[in-house]
Write a structure and sequence with these properties.
With 399 residues, this protein is mainly α. The chain is 66% helix and 2% strand. The protein is built from 16 helices and 4 strands.
Length: 399
């Protein structure tokens, strides 16, 4: 039922984007252009084969925005609806650890969960949109245009979609904290996961973290480690690169490093030219895209919690311990096997897809990997981005 609903949404989005009114020039988009864009939006992947700013009309951009919102909401509530239909309650089985620790015991609470998710999403997007509008109005001088830019990029950021209304994504705003920082924050909040946000809210009320679940601890600590490491490493790799951060003032360099450490994980915006970054930065970007964000979130990747489980398992093996332990709590063997399965499946999908595209397209391995890691991890970040040919477009879109 759920795959059918998603397929129907993609078909509807494709049909709407093929209307003459959806294209800025009045020339209807081709089936491939419309289908790729609709699929990328509903699956919040962020890849595009045409320039969102110049190719699509305001109507087309609204269609894309609605698809992003529907896709983001659907991804984080899909398991809730399935569980409710099947059992009348919601064990959060869409998370490797939350399935063992978080349960909705009341049918009434089950019905309220999608509403709470929608409220959190809308409030976060609204706050981000207001801040971004204040940032954009300083540049445009027009409140209407600034509001549209603010709303579009707030929704795109929170849902980790990566669609931007500027041909160079956010490169032109690399030194603007009123644009870069709110988008970074919305990306992190949207990508941390709703079970974790719920536990954070409860811990703020009780002023205690003692009751945090293993899932919350792994996600929060893992996210902080990835953010700090990503920002520091990106800054170190690109600090003297004359094509990216090198010529910028100190403040702009720092903001560029923040964006470079946050955006690749799942959202796919870019505040520097990824076609000019150094090789170590490309490797860092691939790693961040592969890991992604938290479970039950709008983020993609194999998930921070999965990497945390694998890390705890490796540490236990090195120490010769019989059980992997996090915060004095043992991780069940079934959970460890699930985490390993997710990692292996992710690597397999990327490997097979890379081989297939390498056989069909005359691109270098770096270019192919730059197109495989983003859709597999649901990040639209385009390092060394090449023009997509028709066969490559169709395969990448459906990953």
């Amino acid at each position: 039922m759920i795959p059918v609903a998603y397929f129907a949404a993609i078909l509807l989005g494709t049909r709407l984007l093929m209307l003459p009114a959806a294209a800025a020039g009045g020339q209807p988009a081709s089936v491939l252009e419309a289908a790729f864009t609709a699929t990328s939006a509903i699956c919040i992947t962020g890849l595009a084969v045409v320039d969102t700013e110049s190719f699509w009309s305001p109507f087309g951009q609204v269609v894309i925005l609605v698809l992003i919102q529907v896709g983001g909401f659907g991804i984080v509530t899909i398991a809730s609806f399935l569980a409710r239909i099947a059992t009348g309650r919601i064990p959060l089985r869409y998370s490797l650890l939350a399935s063992r620790e978080l349960h909705q015991r009341s049918l009434a609470r089950t019905w309220r969960l999608p509403v709470r998710i929608a409220v959190v999403m809308l409030v976060a997007e609204a706050v981000t949109a207001i801040v971004l509008t204040l940032g954009f109005v300083r540049r445009t001088g027009d409140w209407g245009t600034a509001s549209w830019y603010g709303g579009f990029h707030a929704i795109s950021a929170f849902n980790n979609a990566g669609f931007a209304l500027f041909s160079d994504s956010l490169i032109g705003f690399v030194g603007d904290p009123m644009i870069i920082l709110p988008i970074c924050l919305a990306t992190v909040v949207g990508g941390i996961g709703f079970p974790v946000l719920s536990e954070l809210r409860r811990s703020f009320r009780t002023r205690s973290t003692a009751r945090w679940s293993i899932h919350a601890r792994l996600t929060i600590y893992g996210t902080l480690i990835l953010l700090v490491a990503g920002i520091l490493l990106f800054g170190a790799f690109e600090w003297t690169n004359p094509a990216t951060l090198g010529p910028l003032p100190l403040g702009d360099k720092l903001l560029g490093a923040v964006g470079g450490g946050v955006f690749p994980r799942t959202v796919g915006f870019n505040s520097v030219d990824y076609g000019a970054v150094r090789e170590p930065t490309v490797g860092l970007t691939y790693l961040l895209m592969f890991i992604g964000g938290g479970s039950v979130s709008t983020a993609g990747g194999v998930k921070v919690g999965t990497i945390g489980i694998i890390s705890a398992t490796v540490v236990a093996e090195v120490r010769g311990e019989s059980q992997a332990v996090v915060s004095r709590r043992a991780i069940a063997s079934a959970v460890q096997r699930s985490a390993m399965t997710v990692i292996l499946l992710g690597v397999t999908v990327i490997g097979v897809s890379t081989a297939a595209i390498g056989f069909l397209e005359p691109f270098s391995l770096q270019r192919i990997c730059s197109r495989r890691s983003p859709p597999s991890g649901r990040s639209g970040c385009p390092p060394a981005s090449p023009p997509n040919s028709a066969p490559g477009r169709s395969r990448s879109s459906w990953s």
